[in-house]
Amino acid sequence: MLEELASARFVGRCGPAYHRLWPDHPELGWALLPEVWGRGYATEAGAACLPPIYEEYGFERVVSIVHPENRRSISVQDRLGFSPWREVLWEETGITLQVRSLTRDGWSRRA
Questions:
Q1: C-alpha–C-alpha distance, residues 18 and 2, integer Å
Q2: Residues 98, 83, 2, CA angle at the centre, nearest 5°?
Q3: Strand pairing report for 2-3 and 10-19
Q4: Would you call 47 helix, strand, or coil by DSSP?
Q5: Structural element, H or E, at residue 104
Q6: pTM
Q7: Which one, of 91, 94, 23, 31, lies nearest residue 63 by Cα?
Q8: Which residues fall within 8 angstroms of residue 22, CB to CB, at 6 or more apart?
Q9: What angle do CA 106, 16, 13 make, to 5 degrees?
């Protein structure tokens, strides 16, 4: 759950989970209310989620899955250090999603 500090209101969510289209690695995902987009909340929350994913849970790779036209999420992924890795077909829609990746080694070099 993401809460805006100034107002204490709920503004979205961020955290790791297993995506049904990519069950091999945990996915770091986020969803925020449109009125708070562009304030850096997704980047801040995503950055806060990475240390436990690697240090506490011991994962070697985390992915973030994105629609290829979602420029805002791709920008967040870029700021967090994710890079293009694979693609996965979302069969119900016929859309090929980008699977972006950040390894423990890549993250530790940035931290």
A1: 19
A2: 80
A3: antiparallel
A4: helix
A5: helix 104-110
A6: 0.92
A7: 23
A8: 63, 65, 88, 99
A9: 120
Helix (H) or strand (E) holding 72: helix 71-80
Question: Looking up tokens 């690695």, which residue turns up?
Answer: 25
Which has the closest alpha carbon to 76: 65, 85, 87? 65
* Each residue's pLDDT tens digit, 11-48: 999 999 999 999 999 999 999 999 999 999 999 999 99
Q: What would the two tokens of residue 54 be?
A: 């690697």
From 82, 85, 80, select the one nearest 99 (Cα to Cα): 85
With 0-12 / 13-18 / 19 or more C-beta atoms within 10 angstroms meaning exposed / middle / buried, residue 59 is: middle
pLDDT tens track for 73-97: 999 999 999 999 999 999 999 999 9
Domains of the chain, first to last: 2-110 (3.40.630.30)
